[in-house]
Amino acid sequence: MKDLPWFPFYVSRFLGSRRVRRFSAEQVGIYILLLCEQWEGGAIPDVDADLARFSHSTASNARNVLEQCFDLTDDGWINPELAEIKEEQDEKRDKRVRAGAKGGRVKAKNRLAKLQQCSSKPLAVEKSRVEESRTEKSKETVVYEPEFLKAWTIYPKREGSNPKMKAGKAWAARVRAGVKPSELLEATERYRKFCDTKATTGSPYVMQASTFYGPDERWKEDYTVDGIGTADRKILAHRMELEGMDLSI
């Protein structure tokens, strides 16, 4: 993407990922190369020659990393977390473009008003038109499993862009990977109780449902309600990271 030549890289989240800890040095390199390829070119084609070229390794080594970190779609391999980040960055970029265009029109109008005030003769000024092209996002039809719909009614909500759709996709990916829907539903109930308890102690932070059900498998954490559990500490560290706080304290 020429308009988005970079993407946010959360170092502590990357190094703290179970998948990265299990990877060899070569697999870590392949993972990063494949993320960069998706960011620039979209879905990664499931073709041996392309996989070997993109990963600078063998197709089998690349496919081993893909199967652990990406979802295979009709278009190719997609990392859902990176796709979500790209969508957020696209929205921010579009807002900046619209704000810039609006600011340019206001400046042109102000210059015209000054010229007309300074001249005793009316000025024949041709107004320039700024055409804004708005690309509507394709509307997707998502079929939710009954267990997910039940979990969604009890999951503590956070604001976001299409949170239900993103959570539903993450849920479906875990089920395809062999996780039982009943396990995800039980984990959701535990997390809801955990969040309710933390809200009474002044720590109401809630992670996005797409992250909870995502490939990092945060739903497996030990969400204890007594004291500071391991999950509570990770959630606090994650919030500090997003707020730009020093995690070494």
What does this structure look like?
The structure is a single chain. With 249 residues, the chain is mainly α. Among the domains are: 11-81, Arc Repressor Mutant, subunit A, CATH 1.10.10; 146-242, no CATH class. Helices cover 58% and strands 2% of the residues. The chain contains eleven helices and two strands. A two-stranded antiparallel ribbon has the order 1-2. The longest helix is centred in the middle third of the chain and has 39 residues, at 80-118. It starts with 10 loop residues before the first helix and ends in a 7-residue tail after the last helix. The model is unreliable at 122-135 (pLDDT under 50).
**Rg:** 24 Å
Write down the overall geometry: globular
Characterize the quaternary organization of these chains.
Answer: single chain
Tell me the span between the first and last alpha carbons.
37 Å
Main β-sheet, in a few words?
Answer: 2 strands, antiparallel
Annotation, overall tally of beta strands: 2
What class, by secondary structure content?
mainly alpha
Q: What is the share of helical residues? A: 55-70%
